[in-house]
Amino acid sequence: MMRFLLLFSRQGRLRLQKWFTPTPEREKKKIIRDMTTMVLARKPRSCNFLHWRDLKIVYKRYASLYFCLALEDQDNELLALEILHRYVELLDKYFGNVCELDIIFNFEKAYFILDEFLMGGEIQETSKQIVNRSIEASDMLQETMEEYMSKPAF
Amino acid sequence: MPAPIRLRELIRTIRTARTQAEEREMIQKECAAIRSSFREEDNTYRCRNVAKLLYMHMLGYPAHFGQLECLKLIASQKFTDKRIGYLGAMLLLDERQDVHLLMTNCIKNDLNHSTQYVQGLALCTLGCMGSSEMCRDLAGEVEKLLKTSNSYLRKKVTLCAVHVIRKVPELMEMFLPATKNLLSEKNHGVLHTSVVLLTEMCERSPDMLSHFRKLVPQLVRILKNLIMSGYSPEHDVSGISDPFLQVRILRLLRILGRSDDDSSEAMNDILAQVATNTETSKNVGNAILYETVLTIMDIKSESGLRVLAINILGRFLLNNDKNIRYVALTSLLKTVQTDHNAVQRHRSTIVDCLKDLDVSIKRRAMELSFALVNGNNIRGMMKELLYFLDSCDPEFKADCASGVFLAAEKYAPSKRWHIDTIMRVLTTAGSYVRDDSVPNLIQLITNSVEMHAYTVQRLYKALLDDISQQPLVQVSSWCIGEYGDLLVSGQCEEEEPIQVTEDEVLDVLEGLLVSNLSTPVTRGYALTAIMKLSTRFSSVNRIKKVVSIYGSSIDVELQQRAVEYNALFKKYDHMRPALLERMPIMEKTATNGPTEIVQTNGETEPSVLDTKHPPPVTQPANQVRANDLLDLLGGNDVVPVIQTTLPTKPASAGGELLDLLGDLSLTGIPPMTAYNKNGLKIEFTFERANPNPNIAVITIHASNSTEADMTDFVFQAAVPKVSRHSLELILKCLIMKHSRVNSLFNQNCATVF
After folding, report:
1. Which residues of B fall within a CB distance of 8 Å from A7?
2. Nearest-by-Cβ selection for A137 from B117, B129, B131
3. In chain B, where are the structural domains located?
4. Averaged pLDDT, B85-93
5. Looking at CA atoms only, how far is residue B175 from chain A in angstroms?
């Protein structure tokens, strides 16, 4: 299973954190520090895999964001690259030419999309269309409420 | 009270902050506003405030005061509230806080909600961060939902069940009935999560594993359909149909076929088909091939298939894509033990990877190269590895040096070659060699009797060039101390003997003593070497002078050695030749080299080298005594054991002491009666000195139970050459009748010299 997924900028600012195992707050901060240091130190043409403690770390840079996924020993690293790519594609479809600012200002949407794609460290849905449709339907539910209240929820 | 500012507004504001302090100020202000809003129990804006809190939490600021608010949001009827509430719960709560249990009831209600998206939220939260207690409470609900025909929910419930099983394995049985027709699904999402559930169950329970073996034909069929089916827009990734599902099925097949011939046979064909038909131009195809290879290697596949798998890995090694090369090296490392010959065929490609620019690949290639070294290819491989050692980054050098030593020791074609290889490592990577290699090398050199002259000559020449690499200097000084006579007499057979005088040798050794580059340990080696030469060289006076100078050295270790050597000159000159004579051949015991695999990359601190060799042959028996002796040094347990044959001494009160030292162990030794005759009883008790555990304190209790006095009681101790002796008290006294005398005796063990 996947252990955690982190998104951070080239300056090391965290944009999204998803933890699939219970981790104390202090430990999370330490892991984030370690990951950003390690990944940002990599040379441009290096391979996308690292070893850290007993986990395999797969990272990929998309524009100004680094996507960093931690796997257990049994997991397939090459497939993990496809998982990251799939997530970016989902974000792209939703936001339309997604960029870092979209994720900064709509972080809760990024989480909602992630929660339709992955769950408990495993892949939940392998079809792009179904994930997109689920998100749209959920958004509709929310909008209906906002229309009713005639103001944005948050 | 004005409405709290909107989330996007807040984000925009915070991003305008130019310094950390400014940002902190803004955040604190907003947090205060949020806190007062929470206190007022404002339902309308709770959602907005929690959302802002989550943003600030992501920036690294504390947000624990929002935990209860998340629970209130979850309990709300509004979908928007629930969405943010559950998100907040997943980010701010975990099973360490008791607060999370309050969620259980809400989740239970939401699991039965009429809207599937609300059910989905509850399932997601439970499946991501449900604690064992929550899982126990809600397992029944999960099991009920597993029967749903709603595919949107079904896939979520299935993963929820996986989570429950992970948290509370005993509940696995509960989900067994629901697995009846798990694989007859058409929906890929449901199918995928079902395969995950089956995998989890099979991994945890051998009973489940045998129960689900009957699913192999079905799995094979599904996989076949995926490969053969035409273009499916919904699941296509670069021309491959649902690679995620394919990989997951391959993984399940691996587990099912692992120790079972029938299952393995049933999947042979499909594995061969996937291995040969998968498109390899893109990463996704290679991901499937990779998983296939792992499966082939793990099950009881026929040899043709195994060779096919290794060849695929060999092709991966030539791929332009770094990731694929890395993955190939990692897989080959896993299989090198079982399919050694097949992997050997790709040795030259692997060795080429040593020159790769990528640091992770270089490390894998190095580990794999060491695993491939054998008696036939040792010369060629060592050439490549030594070249690698010369040119690699410092982070690799320690592991590479250790690996070279280990390989050389196992497969050296000749003693001369072995010594040359060691010399090469010491001179090129001498400062990266591990400290524990030094005693190992010394032992090796001692045992290569016919090479002594050659060795000392080469080491001497190396010292003339460079005295900065400590392990090299230490080994060299030791050798010069031992074999200096061979050096000066020009006896070398293997190469042109050099002309060197005693004074020149002593100049070099004294140079080490004064040099700033030498560590205290090195200085110790140098001083002892000089001392040893006093029995091999004729310029004894010069040596005496050096030794007496260091009797007042600031370095305590050096001072102690010098003082004792001085004493040797002054009072025990008759013992000097015997004490300083040539070291005997040391019996080889287990080399406690690193055996644990730690997979590392270029960035992290390399710990130990992966040695995939079979564990070194351990010499039995005699290991114990010397082991215990060196145990007193404490600390580094990678210190190899060097056994010396203890010289026989005439039995005396002191003689028995000798045997005692051999039995000294860390865990305390019961007191023993050494001598009990004619009314004289001598007892020894043992303990470790406080605070210095390197010192064993042996207390001798001598008692006289006769009517007469015993006079002229002389206490002497003889020691094995291995240990240095710090004699605190030589006792010469009168033992009154019926009395006891205790004397303390300190045994101080230092490093082998």
Report:
1. none
2. B117
3. 669-706+713-752
4. 94
5. 18
Whether the CB-CB separation of A81 and A49 falls below 8 Å is answered with no
**Nearest-angstrom CA–CA distance, B462 and B435:** 19
**A77, B327: Cβ pair inside 8 Å?**
yes
Provide the CB-side half-sphere exposure for B42 (13 A, CA): 19
Q: Which residues of B touch A14 (CB under 8 A)?
A: 58-60
Chosen for mutation from B11, B37, B73, B80 (greatest number of chain A CBs closer than 10 Å) is B80
Q: Which amino acid is at A55?
A: L
Decide if B297 contacts B309 (C-beta within 8 A): yes
Tens-digit pLDDT profile for residues B251-288: 999 999 998 999 999 999 999 999 998 988 899 999 99
Q: In CATH, what number is assigned to the domain containing residue A132?
A: 3.30.450.60
Give the structural domain span for A30.
Answer: 2-150
Specify the pLDDT at position B540.
Answer: 86
Partner-chain contact B604 A125, CB within 8 Å = no
Nearest to B533 by CA among B483, B568, B472: B483
Query: Over the stretch B478-510, which tens digit does the pLDDT of each residue have?
Result: 999 988 888 888 777 777 888 888 888 888 888
Residues B653-699: tens digit of each pLDDT? 333 333 443 344 444 567 777 777 777 777 777 766 655 556 666 77
**What is the amino acid identity at position A151?**
K
Q: Which two tokens stand for residue B557?
A: 């270790």
Tell me the whole-structure pTM to 2 decimals. Answer: 0.73
Report residue B397: phi and psi, to 5°.
-60, -40
Contact in structure between B720 and B704 (CB atoms under 8 Å)? no
- Find where tokens 């949407």 sit: A109
Q: Indicate the residue of A82, A125, A137 with minimum beta-carbon distance to B189.
A: A125
Strand-pair partners of B350: none
Instruction: Mark yes or no for CB contact A142/B80 under 8 Å.
Output: yes
- Tell me how far apart the alpha carbons of residues B591 and B436 are, in angstroms, rounded to a whole number: 10
Residues making up chain A, counted from first to last: 154
Q: What is the ipTM metric for this complex? A: 0.95
Substitution target from A6, A36, A46, A100 for chain B, most B beta carbons within 10 A: A46
Best CA proximity match to B239, nearest among B171, B285, B200, B197: B285
What are the residues facing B672 on neighbouring strands? B684
Copy the structure tokens of residue B72.
């209130």
Helix (H, G, I), strand (E, B), or coil: what is residue B733? Answer: strand
What is the signed CA dihedral for B93, B95, B96, B100, rounded to 10 degrees? Answer: 60
Number of domains in chain A: 1
CB pair distance less than 8 Å for A49 and B290:
no
Distances (CA, A) of B668 to B289, B623, B663, B671: 58, 19, 10, 9
